[in-house]
From TrEMBL:
It comes from Apiospora hydei. The lineage of its organism: Eukaryota, Fungi, Dikarya, Ascomycota, Pezizomycotina. Residues 332-353 are annotated as: Disordered. InterPro entries: Aquaporin-like, MIP, MIP/Aquaporin. Its main location: membrane. This is Aquaporin-like protein.
Length: 353
């Protein structure tokens, strides 16, 4: 049968020619980057490393807290309108805002600071991964300040609407601090019927445990199911999943996010932001032991350091010599187990005989 004009060979030639033409067009249309000047290199070399890292942590927290609290404001202010209609979604919208914000924060700032954005994660990095303990206070301070600035900026942008809803609450004799109140735009507060704080602690603990475990799994270089380009979105979705599932029964999920915005809340709505139902210590502190337990579970039971070494992501503390000793011990242990198994089988056979 005679081949047509679009047989396999001809189509390959056509594709090849089109590809070359497109590459030539792109080369003509795209300008080369401006050469890097020595002045720029000297300026970047003089920048203090600690300052860059602290600013990156603050900016990263800002980048995910700002859209999160803005989405919360949009949801709550529209839900409280006179018609009782909220055209701007609900907890799903808030969860998506935090997820996308976390992804943007990691993409933007993690190359500079490592992308902790959470005091609990910073402490776990110091304990498990060798992050310098002297940097921990600077990182935590920067993270809290990032959330604080995000809360202030959001209040400024929504100030007329927040003033209006605050005036309505005052006119109706309703408290300004509490669940579904103006203060709840910035900080989480328990429902009036959540008087059992032990239950609130349990909810916060397991939510933070879940998020910590997801983060630790995502940043494990030996994990074959996550590559670096998908880590920001996966961590963001882990955070969003907990908002979708448990925000309705009060969660905080990050010490920096809660403490920073709670300070803004106290500025505008009074000290009750920290004293309401004795909840603020739960929101601020439970995240740390919960995240530590999650990372301990991963480090002690799930991590495979030998795979990390084999893939070139880590080295043995004693170098190749230490690795060889480990393999020799493993072989001896396997041989010993085989000998014991063979001896047990011989005993069974002798008993049957």
């Amino acid at each position: 049968m005679r081949s047509g004009p679009f047989d396999h060979a001809a189509s390959q030639d056509l594709e090849l020619g089109t590809t070359e033409a497109l590459q030539q067009h792109a080369a003509r249309s795209v300008r080369a980057h401006k050469p890097v000047s020595q002045r720029k290199l000297d300026f970047e070399r003089r920048r203090p490393r600690w300052l860059r890292e602290c600013l990156a942590e603050a900016i990263g927290v800002f980048l995910y807290v700002f859209p999160g609290v803005a989405a919360t404001a949009s949801f709550m202010l529209n839900a409280a309108n006179p018609l009782g209609v909220s055209p701007f979604g609900g907890l799903f919208q808030v969860g998506c805002a935090y997820a996308v914000g976390i992804a943007f924060a990691i993409i933007t700032c993690a190359p500079t600071s490592g992308g902790h954005f959470n005091p609990a994660i910073t402490l776990c990095f110091a304990f498990w991964q060798g992050f310098p303990w002297k940097k921990v206070p600077y990182y935590i301070f920067s993270q809290v300040m990032g959330a604080f600035v995000a809360g202030l900026v959001m209040m400024g942008m929504y100030w007329p609407q927040i003033q209006a809803i605050t005036a309505a609450f005052i006119a109706q004799g309703q408290p300004l601090v509490g669940n579904a109140s103006p203060a709840a735009i910035l900080s989480s507060f328990p429902h009036p019927d959540q008087t059992n704080l032990g239950f609130v602690v349990m909810t916060e603990f397991f939510v933070d445990f879940f998020i910590g475990l997801i983060i630790w799994a995502c940043i494990d270089p030996a994990n074959p199911f996550v590559n670096p380009s998908t880590v920001p979105l996966m961590i963001g979705l882990g955070y969003a999943a907990m908002i979708w599932g448990f925000a309705d029964i009060t969660i905080a999920a990050n010490m920096a996010r809660d403490l920073g915005t709670r300070m803004v809340c106290a500025i505008f709505f009074g000290r009750e932001a920290f004293t309401f139902m004795n909840y603020s210590p739960i929101a601020i502190l439970v995240n740390i032991p919960a995240t530590f337990c999650a990372t301990a579970l991963y480090e002690l039971l799930l991590r495979d350091s030998l795979t990390s070494i084999g893939q070139g992501h880590a080295v043995h503390e004693d170098g190749e010599e230490g690795l060889q000793r480990h393999f020799s011990k493993s072989v001896l242990t396997d041989d010993e187990e085989m000998r014991r198994s063979q001896a047990a089988r011989r005993q069974e056979i002798s008993k049957m005989g």
